[in-house]
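Protocol step 6 of 9: fold each sequence in the batch and record its structure tokens directly after the sequence line. For illustration, a two-sequence batch is reproduced in full.

Sequence one:
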Amino acid sequence: MSEQTPGTQEREVDVVVIGGGSTGENVADRAHRGGLGEVVVVEDELVGGECSYWACMPSKALLRPTAALAAARRVPGAAAAATGEVDVQAVLERRTSFTSDWDDSSQVEWVEGAGLELLRGRARLDGERRVVVTGADGGTTALVARQAVVVAVGSTPKAPPVDGLDGVRYWTSREATSSRSVPPRLLVLGAGVVGSELATAYRRLGSDVTLVAGSAVLSAFEPRAGELVADALREEGVEVVTGPRASSVERDGDEGEVRLTLDDGRVLVGDELLVATGRGPQTGDLGLETVGLEPGQALDIDAAGQVRGVDGRWLYAAGDVTGLAPLTHMGKYAARAVGDVVAARARGEADGEPAPWSKHATTALHRAVTQVVFTDPEVASVGLTAQQARDAGLDVRVVELDIAVAGSSLQADGYTGWACMVVDESRSVVVGVTFVGQDVAELCQSAAVVVAGEVPLDRLWHAVPPYPTISEVWLRLLEAYGL
């Protein structure tokens, strides 16, 4: 049923993109570059989205200064100059500079400069090809898409079933990355990427941090990666609690101390509680029921990014909202694919199938996902873990070793690192790689080329790593494999 009310403006446009984060921006840009003139981006918060203001950029800005200081302290000659304490206020100010103090003017300028239209407001689907946008003043605009509607609304934090949690004030990643001060005591519930990174950041900025990790730190990664990060956190002074689960929470008023009770009876006390127990697709109030889909669920897409279960080949999705590879860079990749497909279909190309190049999107989004965890040590991973490869029925051989090459010894005294290569023996190709260690983030792209490109191991041997760099670990992995 239409949501149109008296005073609603109705317009027909080529493409409506719901969500003005990095994924939505890239969908819109590619569709417009592909020849579609009227592309409207709808956003009800800050243009640029979660990554720009509350996730990737501010969190890494909080982490980088103390990581640089720690790295200097590991190198004799530089260590003597790195004896002072971190300037917390300067760190917070630099973080704020990366968010433009939560002002999206520059992002709006980019959208308009790219030839796109920005419409501020809350968007909901209202039947086939129709999107109703409600502005801050209560006015509504109905957009009807000639070619496509693309959903790129991202994800939202999920709260665990802990008694009392819904009645207390707590931090999500948004509050943690935008805080103007450092709490004396911080409780972190959840030790995935967000929990581990922010536990690292706030401990180094001066908080007494307790990390309630559940089963393990970074449990979605290779077990050894999580163990090394947990060891490093403990060495930093973080109390890492594994095993017991949170059972209840209470707080003295809005600003009083937080008491988190575990199921073993232990009570943890802090000044702030960060809940970092995962995220889910932000589809609860999107109007999915008007097109026959269930609200609150991830949008199931095909290789072209088209949403399954909706007739007419007009509804697409990209990024976190699909539940696939919920990472900024992967969302932007998927966005480019979707934008190109929408434009190609509008031109009458690729009528029955996705655009020819997009056949590789399945590999990128399912089997060659890249990710870096900016703890210290860093964790860089591409593709499948050993267990995931076994679960997929692959004939798996795992090669793992400590990173101990000339490049790592030059990088830091006492360098601690680990590498793991997962090989599909039936095809003699690498299907997963994990690196753990200082500065291994820059090894991620080489691993991505190896995994996504399905480079045969005998060919990989001839990709000679430069000396002396940490990338020499590739040579050690191949030698350990037996090449």
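Sequence two, same batch, same settings:
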Amino acid sequence: MKKTVLLFALAALPMSTFAARPASRQAAPAASASEIELTSQLPADKREALAALIERFNAQSKAGKVVLAEREPSAGKLPSLMILDEASEASLAGRTKPLQQLMKEAGEPLQVGKMVGGVTSPALFDRSGKLLALPVALSTPVMFINEDLARRAGANVAKSPRTWSELQELAGKFAEAGVSCPVTVTHPATTLLENVSAWNNVPFANPKGGLSVNGLGQVRHVARMASWSKANYLKFYGRGDEAVEHFAKGECGVMLAGQSEFAAASKGGFKVAVSPLPYYEDQPGTPQNTLADGPALWAAAGKSAGENKLAARFVRFWLEPAQQVEWQKATGYLPLNKAGAFAAGSSLLGDDLRAVKTAVTELVSRPATAASRASAIGHNHWVRNILNEELEAVWRDGKAAKLALDTAVQRVLSCAQCRR
């Protein structure tokens, strides 16, 4: 029964299928390309999975090969395909080809659709709803708990904290037991502001495209996190995924991080429990939904028809059910289509599926509201930098939470790059 529920939840993640129309019969065949280049900004622990995927494609491809290049995409001629984080994505604006257009012109099907109910960034779509890039590395934050540390701290490992108040109680037990890092977090701006806002049904962005992170709920939350930091309940290790290494070493009791960190978080030899993000029980409508984001696969503009055809064939291969299963098993990222979701659900993934199941539940258990929908501004690299700077001023310098969030809102208003 549980497996059936999971299958339906996973299948609901992507909606309609974009089917590219076959190329015109009168069109001349595209000249073949012997090889195309792909560069990646995926985390280091995911690159092995990408290399394996490319190797499988090349082994069966008669049309040409994909070469994984270890370089910055902007260093020289753009590669045909690029897995970009939000910073590089912004820097290469105007130099990419919409993925849906690439597939249509190549006569290849694109077996993926819009993500349900606005839980993924609208920056991946153009104004007409056409897909610009393939979100190959989707994650949403969940809660990882070191059960061995929790047991030694006298906590009830059979009952994970559901609310921030319950997590505070657990953090206190860790601290009393001598744990140096009771709680930690990856990507603080995304996790503690954007996703906590959505999870608690509080607007992160306003209808005019600006930020709304200085409301009462967000100020209260940041102030609480500041008090945890002062009490040594909460440790910050950086703006990215630096906290994962510390959790994996057994230094931290709890980590708030994307579900795709499950494999890395579990390398320490201790049992890891996975639970949803905490929520505020006094906030109406909670828990609501979290948001999925991550690096995406972009195609470069200005390539030959043969290069584009080979790139499109690689994308089609990536979206095949068998490849979706392997990709999910190796990376912990969310499946990209219904075929991948059903295939993954029928595979013997065992415990590896726990984090994905929790993530999917967070994303689809309730339809997104106007307050909890993903926003383009939340995906913006410059906005995230501003939020991280202001949050760090709270933890490091003692800046008041309200002042820091007010400042963030004003800085984004005057930031030209933040409006793109």
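Proceed to step 7 once all outputs are recorded. Observation for sequence two: Strands lie at 35-40, 65-69, 81-84, 96-97, 141-146, 181-185, 234-235, 252-258, 272-275, 296-300.
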